[in-house]
User: Which sequence fits this backbone?
């Protein structure tokens, strides 16, 4: 028993020949003092009480009240160290899990960022190409949208030979009256027109451009 334990009435320390008891009100008495007082009544506070004999067979909860503080601190220090080590180990595991989760999330974020940048670049290129097509389609065209028609080639009347031929043909039409058009028959590409005899000679006219045949009207 601890050295500070004593009887609360006679203040005598424990002896080998004496026994000590603990009341439920928290007072300690030796068996000599208990014999002088009333049964089931505390000698100090005079309150009804129950007695518990202090021995090695006393419950651990009561024995803990008489344990030395330094021994109690040493025991709880070991328990505290074990508890702290256990909790720290689990705390480190949880911290490692969170760090790994953060690393995976950062990798996913970088991958998604690169994909978004690529998609934005592709979209910008598509929008630029679409804008060029729209501007080209909306611009007014200087040429007709239909098939291109080649210009008709007319005979060159600037030459003196062609002009002479045209003048003679106009004279014939004036002298012989009105002429009507008729569907031309297939004929060679060149024709020769002979003018009426003049001064005992047969006039000739050189080859001219291809023209439809003429017939006299009714």
Assistant:
């Amino acid at each position: 028993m601890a050295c500070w334990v004593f009887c609360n009435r006679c203040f005598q320390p424990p002896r080998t020949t004496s026994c000590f008891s603990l009341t439920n009100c928290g007072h300690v008495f030796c068996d000599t003092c208990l014999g002088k007082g009333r049964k089931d009544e505390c000698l100090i506070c005079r309150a009804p009480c129950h007695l518990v004999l202090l021995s090695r067979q006393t419950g651990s909860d009561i024995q803990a009240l008489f344990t030395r503080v330094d021994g109690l601190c040493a025991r709880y220090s070991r328990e505290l160290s074990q508890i702290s080590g256990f909790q720290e180990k689990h705390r480190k595991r949880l911290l490692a899990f969170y760090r790994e989760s953060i690393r995976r999330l950062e990798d996913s974020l970088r991958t998604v960022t690169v994909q978004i940048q690529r998609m934005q670049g592709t979209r910008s290129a598509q929008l630029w190409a679409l804008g060029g097509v729209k501007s080209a389609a909306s611009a007014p065209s200087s040429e007709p949208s239909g098939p291109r028609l080649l210009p008709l080639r007319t005979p060159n009347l600037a030459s003196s030979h062609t002009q002479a031929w045209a003048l003679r043909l106009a004279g014939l039409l004036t002298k012989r009256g009105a002429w009507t058009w008729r569907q031309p028959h297939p004929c060679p590409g060149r024709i020769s027109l002979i003018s009426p005899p003049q001064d005992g000679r047969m006039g000739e006219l050189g080859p001219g451009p291809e023209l439809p045949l003429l017939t006299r009207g009714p």
Q: What stands out?
A: Strands lie at 20-23, 28-30, 51-53, 179-181, 194-198, 201-204, 214-216. The domain at 1-67 is CATH 3.30.40 (Herpes Virus-1). The helical segments are 31-36, 60-63, 69-138, 160-176.
